[in-house]
């Protein structure tokens, strides 16, 4: 019974950390990544479709992303979708493919992105704390229904707290490594 609560708590906290890592992948660091355009949807014959499913998206150098659509008639649609996504660059359409030239980041921009990363980490910590509360509530419910003793309840809540502490520590280490990545020139 208690082991199920521990496993569920670990699993849910793991999902929160995975979501944080996905969020971090959309942040710009010193070099450009295709993750920046992952959230862009293109109108593909009336269906919103991920950009990487209507063409190839490649990083050609540290500051350039090249997008080659599989169908030429999609160039204008892709260009419009990029402009609407407001990712900080204007697409350059040369008739065959679209290039996105990202300027080098200033120190201010890097600090701003670090702030965003800290905000994302804080949201992940809040999610982890909410999961801890759910786990503790389940333990208290078992104690209230006399399925476990008061001592077992206390030990179980301590175990849930240990799981929480490990998850928070992982969030902190993920944040600090991302921070180093962002600030590296």
Automatic annotation (TrEMBL):
Instruction: Give me the Gene Ontology terms describing cellular component.
Output: cytosol
Q: Which GO terms describe its molecular function?
A: ribosomal large subunit binding
Q: Which residues form the Ribosome recycling factor domain?
A: 20-183
Instruction: Provide the alphabetized UniProt keywords.
Output: Cytoplasm, Protein biosynthesis
Q: Where is this region: Disordered?
A: 137-161
* UniProt-listed SUPFAM superfamilies: Ribosome recycling factor, RRF
Q: Please, one GO biological process term? A: cytoplasmic translational termination
Where is it mostly found? cytoplasm
Q: Where in the cell is it found?
A: Cytoplasm
Q: Which Pfam families match?
A: RRF
Q: What does this protein do?
A: Responsible for the release of ribosomes from messenger RNA at the termination of protein biosynthesis. May increase the efficiency of translation by recycling ribosomes from one round of translation to another.
Q: Into which family does the record put it?
A: Belongs to the RRF family.
Q: What is this protein called?
A: Ribosome-recycling factor
Biological source species: uncultured Sulfurovum sp
Print the organism lineage.
Answer: Bacteria, Pseudomonadati, Campylobacterota, Epsilonproteobacteria, Campylobacterales
